[in-house]
């Protein structure tokens, strides 16, 4: 074995998430090799000649060393995919080993933010690309910072077949006023983005299409009923889908960065950084924009139907009367 190959084997490690029963089995299985480790969060540790095993309070088990994959395979069954951070997920029954298949993932962002657009991205990761995408560091985007996602997104966009759609606030307010619910807006965008990706893929077909679930299946397809082309085949829904396949995690990062980029643009227009979410800070900034730039300007960068519009108005009125 050459030096590099040797090093790669030595460095191999694997994390599994086990339930309480599996953990008990694992701990008794390695009882003979038990060692004492006083690190935070560690509930059990064992050392084999070629593998170190560490069990954390969270139920995660880290296998390190040249025997890591062999030992992990004793515990890492197909069902673990569903247990991975998703014990309270909702949605379809998923095929085993979904995380290793060729999947189009889709996810949206911005729906809970008063300022800024709604963005949706769909993204295809073939079975052969999964390792590469993991190599780029893609995980559940909720664990990642905005700054980090901005760094990773260009690589993902350059590597993966994807589609990203941004509904500007003007457009959003217009269709919302026509009576479209957020659910309908999201359903149409997901369907559209997935359609684009399938078209770009040409003859290649995904094993599955996994949508980070925001509505029940019947509700989703009901929103799409007047669409000409509805993607139904191999569509799966799951909450926390970003933990189930890297395609959804990648889509989530791409959507998030599209949201951030539009927020950057709007912040320039507003003359100040726009806060995310829909909390009191958002009301403060919105009131300030009302006073300095006027109502039309505020509308052009917000989701008008949110309660924040009225709250900002009241704050602005108060400030005006104090003058
Ligand atoms: Mg989502």
Question: Could you characterize what this model shows?
Answer:
- It is a single chain.
- A hairpin with a 3-residue loop joins β4 and β5.
- By secondary structure, the chain is α+β, with helices and mostly antiparallel strands.
- The chain contains 13 helices and ten strands.
- The N terminus is likely disordered.
- The structure holds magnesium ion.
- Magnesium ion (MG) binds next to β6.
- Magnesium ion binds next to β6.
Low-confidence stretches: 1-10, 78-85
For the biggest sheet, the summary is:
5 strands, antiparallel
Give the % helix. Answer: 40-55%
The pLDDT mean sits at: 89
Name some characteristics of this structure.
323 residues; alpha+beta; 5-stranded antiparallel sheet; 5-stranded mixed sheet; 13 helices; 10 strands; globular; binds magnesium ion
Write the layout of secondary structure elements.
Layout: H1 3-11, E1 13-17, H2 20-29, E2 34-35, E3 42-47, E4 52-56, E5 60-64, H3 68-73, H4 80-83, E6 103-109, E7 118-125, H5 130-135, H6 146-159, E8 161-167, H7 169-177, H8 182-201, E9 208-212, H9 217-223, E10 235-238, H10 246-270, H11 280-293, H12 295-299, H13 308-322
Helix pairs in contact: 6-10, 11-13
Write a concise synopsis of the structure shown.
The chain has helices at 3-11, 20-29, 68-73, 80-83, 130-135, 146-159, 169-177, 182-201, 217-223, 246-270, 280-293, 295-299, 308-322; strands at 13-17, 34-35, 42-47, 52-56, 60-64, 103-109, 118-125, 161-167, 208-212, 235-238. The chain is an alpha+beta fold and 323 residues long.
């Amino acid at each position: 074995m050459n030096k590099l190959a040797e090093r790669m084997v030595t460095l191999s490690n694997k994390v599994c998430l086990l339930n309480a029963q599996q953990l008990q089995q694992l701990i008794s299985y390695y009882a003979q090799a038990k060692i004492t480790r006083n690190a935070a969060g560690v509930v059990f540790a064992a050392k084999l000649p070629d593998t170190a095993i560490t069990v954390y309070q969270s139920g995660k088990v880290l296998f390190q060393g040249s025997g890591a994959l062999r030992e992990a395979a004793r515990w890492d069954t197909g069902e673990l995919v569903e247990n991975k951070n998703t014990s309270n997920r909702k949605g379809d029954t998923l095929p085993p080993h979904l995380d290793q298949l060729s999947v189009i993932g889709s996810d949206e962002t911005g729906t809970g933010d008063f300022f800024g657009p709604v963005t949706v991205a769909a993204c295809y990761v073939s079975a052969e690309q999964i390792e590469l995408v993991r190599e780029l560091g893609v995980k559940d985007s909720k664990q990642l910072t905005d700054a980090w996602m901005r760094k990773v997104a260009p690589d993902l966009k350059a590597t993966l077949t994807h589609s990203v759609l941004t509904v500007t606030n003007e457009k959003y307010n217009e269709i919302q006023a026509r009576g479209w619910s957020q659910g309908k807006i999201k359903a149409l965008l997901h369907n559209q983005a997935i359609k684009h990706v399938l078209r770009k893929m040409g003859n290649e077909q995904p094993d599955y299409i996994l949508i980070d679930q925001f509505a029940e299946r019947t509700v989703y397809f009901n929103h799409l009923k007047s669409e000409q082309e509805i993607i139904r085949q191999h569509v799966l829904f799951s909450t926390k889908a970003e933990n189930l396949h890297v395609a959804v995690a990648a889509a989530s990062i791409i959507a998030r960065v599209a949201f951030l980029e539009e927020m950057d643009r709007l912040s320039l227009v507003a003359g100040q950084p726009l806060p995310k979410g829909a909390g009191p800070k958002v009301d403060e900034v919105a009131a300030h924009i009302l006073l300095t730039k006027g109502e039309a300007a505020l509308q052009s960068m917000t989701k008008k139907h949110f309660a924040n519009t009225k709250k900002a108005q009241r704050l602005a009125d108060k400030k005006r009367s104090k003058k």
